[in-house]
Amino acid sequence: MEVNLLYGSSGLIADFPEDRTSVVRARETPPIADEMGAVLQALREPIASAPLRDLSGPTDHVAIVFSDITRAVPYRTILPPLLQELSRVPVPQIVFINALGSHRPNTQDELVEILGAEVVERYRIEQHDSHSEEDLVPLGRTASGNEIWVNRTYMQSSVRILTGLIEPHLFAGFSGGPKAVLPGIAGIRSIAANHGAHMIGHPGSGFGRTQGNPIWEEMMEVALMTEPTFLVNVTQTEGRGLSGVFAGRLAEAHAAGVDFARRHSVVPVDRAFEVVVTTAGGYPFDISMYQSVKGVAAAGAIVKDGGAIVLASECREGVPSFGEFGDILRASQDPDRLLGMVSSSGFFMQDQWDAQILAQIVRRADLHIYSDGLSEDQVRQTFGRPCEDISGTVRYLLEEHGPRARVAVLPAGPLSVPFLNGSRSP
Fold this sequence. Notes:
Elements: E1 2-5, E2 12-15, E3 21-23, H1 35-44, E4 62-67, H2 75-85, E5 94-99, H3 108-115, H4 117-122, E6 124-127, E7 136-141, E8 147-151, H5 152-156, E9 159-165, E10 168-169, E11 173-174, H6 188-194, H7 197-200, H8 214-225, E12 230-236, E13 242-248, H9 250-265, E14 266-269, E15 273-279, H10 289-300, E16 303-312, H11 325-332, H12 335-343, H13 352-362, E17 365-370, H14 376-381, E18 385-386, H15 390-401, E19 407-410, E20 417-420
Helix pairs in contact: 1-2, 10-13, 11-12, 12-13
């Protein structure tokens, strides 16, 4: 049977034995026919909030926090209605803040790709720098004692709008909502504390989990400390059509979006598999190996101990070069050493969180990587084995694991979250 895997911008077709293959997909969600109309309606009939147009005026200074190039947020659909509802605010008093977290700054072309040329030309855009202390303000400490610093421009604005995409997230449960603040516009020390080894290793963290997840709960605590004015979050179909719009007060609007996303993206399966084929969800989600750990983590939920994961991820930016993800992998050389390193007292390297999750999974399952953007050395650096032919590799692995072995295919990778029946549901 042929399955179209989300890979880069064009996709990738692989062939699997029909009698031994289970394809795991999110439940189908019909796309919204009038997308801009749905956004406008959500802004005018929000959840637990007054309409957006009633929350701003000519004297306000508005900060709109938006996601970077690694998130497929349909801003060209969201922004026209959003800016229409902010029409009483003079353009010079509106700033767009790129919620980079610990990611690299986006190029001018990428900003145009995200926001559209007209927005980039007309409005001021600030790319958040989590390392720049002069651009941050302190908010105090969270209940767990972590010190919080947040973007100064955002906090100095009288109207604070958070935007984003709600989808399953490998350790925060779901994206969107409070992630726009932490890690989006937070200081690097605050990000490091929230993404620390004990938080990543906590049994409550993981795909699809919010309540009881210390990472998400601190994210929400911090976001509420900033007193955001309004939230605009969306969900998407596998084909990237708009499936839902959730706008209003942060906690309530995000909860509604998470409930919707969970119903459609969390998929129970009856057994663990000897082989699991996964993706990172295609471009821009598979822009680098760092981002592609999400796909490995989704597969890790249903692969047998001693089994194999086959990742198909373009990784056009490589490992990548920005950040310290690759440095951690090179310094550790094997998963056990990496886990010991990140768990040691006082240790911190940027991006250690995804490296930790990767190491936890490859300790119990072999990783094979098909990628046009990674060299063989880079694949091995990420504890993987180079794969030149997905179909051929799967046939070999099934033969190696015996006649009763089966393969699960996650064509959209982490955009659908599998879990074993009888285990704790996300």
